[in-house]
Write a structure and sequence with these properties.
The chain is an alpha+beta fold and 533 residues long. The chain contains ten helices and 23 strands. Strand 20 (428-430) and strand 21 (436-452) form a beta hairpin. Helix 3 runs antiparallel to helix 6, helix 6 runs antiparallel to helix 8 (181-207) and helix 8 runs antiparallel to helix 9 (456-475).
C-alpha cells in the first residue's frame, strides 16, 4: 500500500488527531437519569425512605401535635436536642428533606405507572398472540387424536374458551385465547391509587391547616387565628375561608385506677363540649374522647393532653383585685401530675407582681427527703407552693414572652423577701410589702388539636382502591391457551393444547383439556397425553 492509499484513520493517528468517542451528551444524561428515576427499583427505595423518614415522627414529639413536649424534650436533652432540631426531626412531615423524598417518590411512581398503564391498555385491545410453533415446550401441554375434522375441533375450542371468558382469536389452523387482564389491572390500580394517595396527602398539607389550643373548663374558643396557641398553615392556606365554628368546654373528667400496681393510671378521658357550626346555628353537645374526634366545619378536633389550671385571686398593694382566674400549669411528671407554672400580674400597683408556683393535686409530706410530693393524680388535697417577685415584667417592651416563664429575674424583677409560701385550697397569703394572693382551687385544662385536611377523604378512597387492586393482583393471573388441530394419519386429526400462566400453573388448563375431550366422544382411548405441571 502506497502512502497515497493510506486509510484516513491511519493518517489521523499519524498526525496526532485520533477521533475521540462521543459521550452521552446533556440529552442522553437526562434520558438516563429519567430511566433510573422511573424504575421500579428506585420507587421501592424511595418508598422505603419515606417509611424510614416517618419513624422519627412517631418516636420524637412533634411541634404540630405537642409543642409543649418538644420544649420539655429540648430542656431535658440540651446536647442532642438542638442537633435533632436542626435536622427538623421535631417537625418531620414539614421538613425539606422529607418533602424532597416525597416529591421524588411521586414523580417516580408517575413516570413508572402511567407508561405501563398505556402499554397495558394497548395489550388489552390487541389480539392474543399466535400459537408457538412447538406447543409441547410450554409449561402445560397435551395432545390427542380424534376423528373430527380440524374445523370442527377449532369451532368447539372457540365456543368452550369464550364460555370461560377468554378473549379468542383465530390463527392458521389454531385458536389463541387469553384472559387474566384483571391481575395486571389490579396491580396498576394499586400503584395509581398510591399515586392518588400521595397527591391527596400533599394537597391536604398544601391547603389545610393544623393548630393547637389549650382550653380550661368553662372556657371557649372560636375558629380564628387569634385563639390558637400554635398554628401551622399550608402554603396555599387562606384564613378568610376558615369555617366559623366555635366550641366551649363545660367539664372534663378523668377516671384513675385507685388500687393495685396500676394505681394512678388513667382509665378514661371524657370532655363535655358544646359547639356551634355557625354563630347563628343552635348549640350541640358532644362527648369528646381519645380517638373519637369532633368533626365540625370540615375540620377534626382531637383530644391530646390534659392537666390542671390552679385558680388564684391576686390583690395589689392598693387592695384592688389585679388578677382573678385559672392559669394552666405544665405537668412535671405524668404519673401523679405534679405541675409547675407562673402567674403574671401586670395590672398590680404600685409595682407589677409575678409568682412562680408548683402544684400538687394530692399533696403528701415526704419525711425522708423533707419535701412535698403528689401521691395521686386526682384533686384529693390540692396544694400549691409560691415564690413571689415584684418589679417590671417587661411586657411593654414589645418582645414576646412565654406564658410559662418569668423573664428579667434579678434584673427588672426581684424576689420578695419572705415571699415563699405553701397554700392549700382556700388559703390566702399576705405578700410582704403589700398585696395578697388566694388559692381558690383548680380546674382541668385540655389541649386540642384542630386539623383540617381537604385531602383526607380522597386519601381514604385511594387507600381502599389500593387494597382492592392489591387483592386483585394476587388472586388473578394472566393465562394463555392455544389449541392447534392438524391432519394426522388415517384421516384422523391431531389436537395439541398448550397453556402458559404467569406464575405457577393453575388447574384451569386441565379443566379446559378435560372439557374438550368430554365434548368429543370420538377421542382415541389410547392417545398420547403429555401434561407438564
Amino acid at each position: 500500500m502506497t502512502e497515497t492509499q493510506e486509510p484516513t484513520a491511519v493518517r489521523r493517528v499519524s498526525q496526532g488527531r485520533e477521533p475521540r468517542p462521543k459521550g452521552l451528551g446533556p440529552v442522553g444524561w437526562l434520558r438516563w437519569g429519567w430511566r433510573q428515576l422511573t424504575s421500579m427499583r428506585t420507587a421501592l427505595i424511595l418508598l422505603f425512605l419515606v417509611a424510614l423518614g416517618s419513624v422519627p415522627g412517631s418516636i420524637l414529639p412533634q411541634r404540630g401535635q405537642a409543642p409543649e413536649k418538644v420544649v420539655e424534650y429540648l430542656d431535658e436533652h440540651r446536647t442532642t436536642g438542638p442537633w435533632l432540631d436542626r435536622l427538623s426531626l421535631f417537625d418531620v412531615f414539614a421538613a425539606p428533606w422529607f418533602a424532597a423524598i416525597y416529591i421524588l417518590l411521586f414523580v417516580s411512581l408517575a413516570g413508572c405507572v402511567i407508561p405501563r398503564s398505556r402499554h397495558h391498555w394497548r395489550a388489552m385491545r390487541a389480539r392474543p398472540p399466535a400459537a408457538p410453533r412447538v406447543l409441547s415446550r410450554l409449561p402445560q401441554s397435551t395432545s390427542y387424536e380424534t376423528e373430527r375434522d380440524a374445523d370442527e375441533v377449532l369451532a368447539e375450542a372457540r365456543r368452550l374458551l369464550r364460555g370461560r371468558r377468554f378473549r379468542v382469536a383465530d390463527g392458521k389452523g389454531s385458536v389463541a385465547a387469553e384472559k387474566g387482564y384483571l391481575g395486571e389491572i389490579g396491580n396498576l390500580l394499586f400503584h395509581l391509587a398510591l399515586l392518588v394517595l400521595l397527591f391527596a396527602v400533599g394537597a391536604g398539607a398544601l391547603f389545610g391547616y393544623r393548630g393547637n389550643i389549650v382550653l380550661t373548663e368553662g372556657g371557649a374558643f372560636a375558629n380564628s387565628l387569634a385563639y390558637y396557641d400554635q398554628f401551622t398553615p399550608g402554603r396555599q392556606f387562606d384564613p378568610d375561608r376558615m369555617a366559623p365554628f366555635s366550641m366551649r368546654l363545660d367539664h372534663f373528667k378523668v377516671t384513675f385506677v385507685e388500687e393495685g400496681e396500676r394505681r394512678g393510671r388513667p382509665l378514661d378521658f371524657s370532655a363535655r363540649v358544646y359547639y356551634r357550626e355557625r354563630p347563628e346555628a343552635p348549640e350541640k353537645f358532644y362527648n369528646l374522647r381519645v380517638n373519637h374526634p369532633l368533626a365540625v366545619g370540615g375540620a377534626k378536633i382531637y383530644l391530646l393532653n390534659h392537666g390542671y389550671a390552679p385558680q388564684f385571686t391576686v390583690r395589689d398593694g392598693n387592695g384592688d383585685i389585679a388578677y382573678r382566674g385559672a392559669m394552666p400549669f405544665l405537668p412535671l411528671e405524668q404519673r401523679n401530675l405534679t405541675s409547675e407554672g407562673v402567674i403574671k400580674v401586670p395590672d398590680a400597683r404600685p409595682q407589677q407582681l409575678a409568682f412562680q408556683a408548683v402544684f400538687w393535686p394530692t399533696a403528701v409530706a415526704d419525711t425522708r427527703n423533707k419535701q412535698v410530693l403528689s401521691a395521686f393524680p386526682a384533686l384529693l388535697n390540692p396544694t400549691v407552693s409560691l415564690m413571689t417577685f415584684r418589679g417590671d415584667l417587661g411586657l411593654d417592651s414589645g418582645i414576646p414572652q412565654s406564658v410559662y416563664r418569668i423573664e428579667g429575674i434579678g434584673k427588672t424583677l426581684q424576689p420578695v423577701r419572705g415571699g415563699s409560701k405553701l397554700l392549700r385550697q382556700g388559703e390566702t397569703f399576705a405578700i410582704p410589702g403589700g398585696g395578697s394572693i388566694t388559692f381558690d382551687g383548680a380546674k382541668e385544662w385540655i389541649s386540642l388539636s384542630v386539623n383540617r385536611d381537604p385531602g383526607r377523604l380522597p386519601a381514604l378512597a385511594a387507600a381502599i382502591v389500593a387494597i382492592v387492586g392489591l387483592i386483585g393482583s394476587f388472586l388473578v393471573r394472566r393465562r394463555r391457551v392455544w389449541v392447534r388441530a392438524t391432519p394426522g394419519e388415517g384421516g384422523r386429526t391431531v389436537v395439541e393444547v398448550g397453556g402458559l400462566t404467569l406464575g405457577n400453573p393453575t388447574p384451569e388448563f386441565d379443566d379446559v383439556v378435560a372439557a374438550l375431550r368430554r365434548d368429543d366422544p370420538q377421542v382415541r382411548t389410547g392417545s398420547d397425553d403429555k401434561t407438564e405441571e
